[in-house]
Design a protein that fits this description.
about 250 residues; mainly beta; Inorganic Pyrophosphatase; 2,3-Dihydroxybiphenyl 1,2-Dioxygenase, domain 1; five-stranded mixed β-barrel; elongated
């Protein structure tokens, strides 16, 4: 019976290694920079056992027991690959792509995670807000979603694609404030947020009666001998944090 590879996500699995780190592919001749094996007694879409990459172990193995943190689903090939790592370790989507590129470069694929998985950015701004409910209404209008909340702390973690913010409602005993906050909060900084369709976001904000701080315009910024284009506008959130919503227009020669 063919197994659904996503059923193994976030589970501890026993792996048999048939192509240890440093071995040659029997047909194509490339070297395996990671251990590669399969889950015994399974059947994948290609009729063989379900294959696995083992990441985070830096010596050749014969077998391994680890956690499945992701599935590489090949869109143009009936053959999924599990990503197995030491329990407690994690690898970002980008790290997985780099470590498996030696073989996966030949295929079109996507990385699937288990429900509830969240890959945290290295830099996540936390915004102090006066009213969390009003702030969430504004950011949802832009397209953000709530990843998780702590209602007892009036805290929300929100995201839009790879953009992440933390929102924390101000309390009387706020320990992070080093000076009294005065509207507009965040004066002196703006957050550039790239979206797929900036006109659509603009229209949603206008329809919801949010004031646009700087109207839509097309700007080109020099980078070396190229000009990088953005279609963009600026809006302030309910506390005055300035957001620059932009859509990539590509590049052109100077």
């Amino acid at each position: 019976m063919i197994v659904n590879s996503t059923n193994y996500l976030n589970n501890i699995l026993d792996v048999k290694i048939d192509r240890p780190m440093g071995s040659l592919h029997p047909k194509h001749g490339f070297i395996y920079p990671v251990n590669y094996g399969y889950i015994p007694n399974t059947k994948s879409y290609d009729g063989e056992e379900l294959d696995c990459y083992v990441l985070g172990i830096y010596e050749p193995l014969k077998e391994y027991k680890g956690r499945c943190i992701a599935v590489i689903h090949r869109i143009n090939d009936k053959d999924d690959k599990l990503i197995i790592v030491p329990d407690g370790r994690d690898f970002s989507d980008e790290e997985i792509k780099v470590l498996t590129e030696f073989q996966e470069r030949f295929f079109i694929s996507e990385i699937i995670r288990y429900d509830g998985y969240l890959e945290f950015n290295k830099n996540i701004p936390e915004l102090s807000v006066t009213n969390l409910e009003q702030s969430l209404k504004f950011y949802k209008t832009i397209g953000f979603k709530i990843e998780y909340e702590r209602p007892e702390n009036k805290f929300s973690f929100i995201s839009l694609d790879k953009i992440q913010f933390m929102l924390q409602e101000i309390t009387d005993d706020e320990k992070w404030d080093i000076a009294p906050l005065k509207y507009p909060f965040g004066n002196g900084i703006n957050f550039q947020i790239e979206v797929d369709n900036v006109s659509e976001v603009y229209n949603k904000l206008k329809e919801s009666n949010y004031n646009i701080t700087f109207e839509m315009e097309e700007n080109w910024y020099r980078q070396g001998d190229k000009l990088l284009g953005n279609k963009e506008f600026l809006v302030q959130d309910p506390d005055g944090y300035l957001l620059r919503l932009s859509e990539d227009l590509g590049e052109k020669d100077i």
